[in-house]
Amino acid sequence: MARIAGVNIPTNKRVLIALQYIHGIGPRKAQDLIEKVGIAPERRVNELSDSEVLQIREAIDQDYVVEGDLRREVAMNIKRLMDLGCYRGLRHRRGLPVRGQRTHTNARTRKGPAKAIAGKKK
């Protein structure tokens, strides 16, 4: 089992797909990585040699911010907005949509399950 950036990536999947299990690496970055390291996209993780896994690990450490560092950076950005008291920070603080979506209806992902209001029936 290959362990890259603190994540056990699945062994029976193609390298392109398996790399996307790492937080901060999507389809485009995974494609760039396998081109840079020189691995064929159709190869599977269990077919990789230890040196190829090491090359991937070093390329990720060198070029990308992933996993814990990325999560910490995003959390610090949100905390900074909240400390500033700007509009986006207030929306984060209240647990409401941040990017201008409507909240009269919908927005259930951010607001949580609907709560009944007493005496509202008509």
From TrEMBL:
Q: Which SUPFAM superfamilies match?
A: S13-like H2TH domain (SSF46946)
GO molecular function terms listed in the Swiss-Prot or TrEMBL record? rRNA binding; structural constituent of ribosome; tRNA binding
Matching PROSITE patterns, A to Z? RIBOSOMAL_S13_1, RIBOSOMAL_S13_2
Specify where the region named Disordered lies, as residue ranges.
99-122
Listed GO CC annotations: cytosol; small ribosomal subunit
Q: What InterPro entries does its record include?
A: Rbsml_uS13_C, Ribosomal_uS13, Ribosomal_uS13-like_H2TH, Ribosomal_uS13_bac-type, Ribosomal_uS13_CS
Subunit structure of this chain's protein: Part of the 30S ribosomal subunit. Forms a loose heterodimer with protein S19. Forms two bridges to the 50S subunit in the 70S ribosome.
Similarity comment: Belongs to the universal ribosomal protein uS13 family.
What exactly does this protein do? Located at the top of the head of the 30S subunit, it contacts several helices of the 16S rRNA. In the 70S ribosome it contacts the 23S rRNA (bridge B1a) and protein L5 of the 50S subunit (bridge B1b), connecting the 2 subunits; these bridges are implicated in subunit movement. Contacts the tRNAs in the A and P-sites.
What's the name of the protein?
Small ribosomal subunit protein uS13
Annotated organism of origin? Pseudoxanthobacter soli DSM 19599
Q: Which gene encodes it?
A: rpsM
